[in-house]
Amino acid sequence: MQAPLASRHQLGKNVISYCKSTVISVKILKLTSCTSYARFSVGSVRLTTIKEANSIHTRLIKIGFQSHVSSWNSLLQLYTKSGKLVEARQVFDQMPDRNAVSWNVIISGYVQHEYNDKALKVLVQMQGADVKPNGFTFSSVLRACAGLAALEEGKQIHAVISKVGFGLDVFIGSSLVDMYAKCRQVDDAQQMFDKMPQRSGVSWNALLAGYAHSGYGVQVLKLFCHMQEERMKPTEFTFSIVLMSCSARAALEEGKQLHAIVIKSGIESNVFVGSTLTDMYSKCSSILDAHRLFERMPERNVVSWTAMIAAYAQHQCINEVLQLLKQMQLAHVKLNQFTINSVLSACASPEALDPGKQVHALLIKSGFQSDICVGASLVTMYAKCGCVEGFVKVYETIPEADVVSWNAMIAGYAQNGYGEEALQHFTQMLQAVLMPDFFTFASILKVCANLAILEQGKQVHTHAIKTGASAQHGRGREALLLFEQMQEAGVHPDHITFIGLLSACSHVGFLDEGWKCFDLMSREYGIKPRMEHYSCIVDLLCRGGQLDRAEAFIHSMPLQPSILVWKTLLSACRIYGNMGVGKRVAEYLLHLDPQESTNYILLSNMFAAEGKWDDAARIRKTMNDGRVKKEPGCSWVEVNKSVHAFVTEDRSHEL
């Protein structure tokens, strides 16, 4: 029965009056007419407490809205817009009747807050309730598939869409392009795009993003040119995608042409576009252009500042990084995780220890001392500065260390030549029932190699295989072929790329290829070698038996050699029986760290291998007189899928 128009208006006024009297912020609340009932719709909602939402619910029931689906949908929308999804689901389950809008609201609420798996489950329930999905439903669940990279589910939904005749809708078509693109099926995304009779800016951007994220930089530029030919106006998001593609390929000339189009479009002052342009110039090693652009920006946000700081950090310009950090604080822009990581990476060298300590003090003052990710970054920074005491103290302040934190600690000990401490920490990690990953095993296996402890290395290798984290060594040729494909695709390598290349060459003995990569890094790509790259070259020379050349290379390094570099050479001297170089290196290491037992043991073993027993005994006596203690050996045994660590002469273990 249709309610009188006057009473429907009065009912709506009662709802509006009540909502305005509460402390809940309802920015847009409007009355709309309906032939059979009155309803209200919410444009922007902010709930401060669940109690207030419950008050609205109770009030709606009292004033007679309990029988109308529309009023329940509006309450459901209040909760979903505010992120109160548990309460939204409770309301949804309590609804006496539901229509397609009800199902769409709860599905879109889950998708908006990235509960994509729950959104797909609700779709199945919707079908079971015999409620037909509409265009809004399909758009939401396709976003859920894109977020989960759920290709098979996306294809099934596509089949349903084609069956019910929604495939030609520009909104649904754009969602399908986006779904296929985010599932890295760019061919399918292109086919869907080509079938669309009409395309919106969203359609173009979805396909552009798909090609960019899949590494097809040249195709991104071709598609952008096609977009201009079709007279489709690019948005700031469009420019961001294409510029990021230029950054990945270090395509400076194309980037400059895009910059000109940005200026012509009148959106250079857009903070989002400006930040992307800054990043493009810095990734193309045009740091001065990046800085000029940054200075011209009328408005800067944390992304802009971080992009400029990361640019200087990438080029190891520590003074400029610290100056920008100071200016950022004066501008009252809050730091985020990306800013902190960029600043700390710039401080991660022995000569930047003092600035690194200043940044650490700033982070404590800013309240980041309890952040796990920041703690791990600080551990890495102090480790690369060679400050063992620093990274140990930072690690002790991390409230609940995760695998990343443990890895940073183990790598810190390993990088600074404290192999026994790294092994001890690895044992503690296993006892804490944490699962080591690839990075953990890489550090520990490196320690075992440097300490020449084969049996423990075998145990670690076995454990790595069982956990599925075993590194595939001996694939140097494949690594070089992949690098060639990377160059042909126009993708710009970074310092991490060359660490992988040099490590691969080292493991398979590609001495000439390794040197070529090391030369190419600075000559062709302008990447300044770091300690990790120098360490790889030393390891490469040592594995090739060129120990005199390795010693000369270490002395020629522009950076202060780390203890690990010297230990790598000393281990190689023991393997190849080079007493001349080995003795010089050992004496230098004993001078640097007279309390490190590994140095004494390696030198003693070298003398013993040469039959020089008196010299070996003398080294052992020096070690004992200096009260240098060797850490006890440790073994790992797996019992019932649980790893147990045993230390020599330790009878405290329950087994």
Tell me what the structure shows.
The chain is mainly alpha-helical and 655 residues long. It is built from 35 helices and 6 strands. A two-stranded antiparallel ribbon has the order 1-4. A hairpin with a 2-residue loop joins strand 5 and strand 6 (642-647). Helix 33 packs antiparallel against helix 34 (597-609). The radius of gyration is 32 Å and the shape is elongated. The model is unreliable at 1-48 and 470-474 (pLDDT under 50).
Please, what is the average pLDDT?
80
Kindly name the structural category: mainly alpha
Number of helices: 35
Shape: elongated
Report helical residue fraction: 55-70%
Beta-strand portion reads: under 5%
Briefly summarize what is shown:
By secondary structure, the chain is mainly alpha-helical. Helices cover 69% and strands 4% of the residues. The chain has 35 helices and 6 strands.
Notable features of this structure?
disordered N terminus, 4% strand, elongated, 69% helix, two-stranded antiparallel sheet, two-stranded antiparallel ribbon, 655 residues, single chain, mainly alpha
Could you outline the blueprint of secondary structure elements for this entry?
Blueprint: H1 5-21, E1 25-26, E2 29-32, E3 39-42, E4 45-46, H2 50-62, H3 69-81, H4 85-94, H5 100-112, H6 116-128, H7 135-148, H8 151-164, H9 170-182, H10 186-195, H11 201-213, H12 217-229, H13 236-249, H14 252-265, H15 271-283, H16 287-296, H17 302-314, H18 318-330, H19 337-346, H20 353-365, H21 372-384, H22 388-397, H23 403-415, H24 419-431, H25 438-451, H26 454-466, H27 476-488, H28 495-508, H29 511-523, H30 531-543, H31 547-556, H32 563-576, H33 579-592, H34 597-609, H35 613-625, E5 634-639, E6 642-647
Antiparallel strand pairs: 1-4, 2-3, 5-6
Helix pairs in contact: 2-3, 3-4, 3-5, 4-5, 5-6, 5-7, 6-7, 7-8, 7-9, 9-10, 9-11, 10-11, 11-12, 11-13, 12-13, 13-14, 13-15, 14-15, 15-16, 15-17, 16-17, 17-18, 17-19, 19-21, 21-22, 21-23, 22-23, 23-24, 23-25, 24-25, 25-26, 27-28, 28-29, 28-30, 29-30, 30-31, 30-32, 31-32, 32-33, 32-34, ...
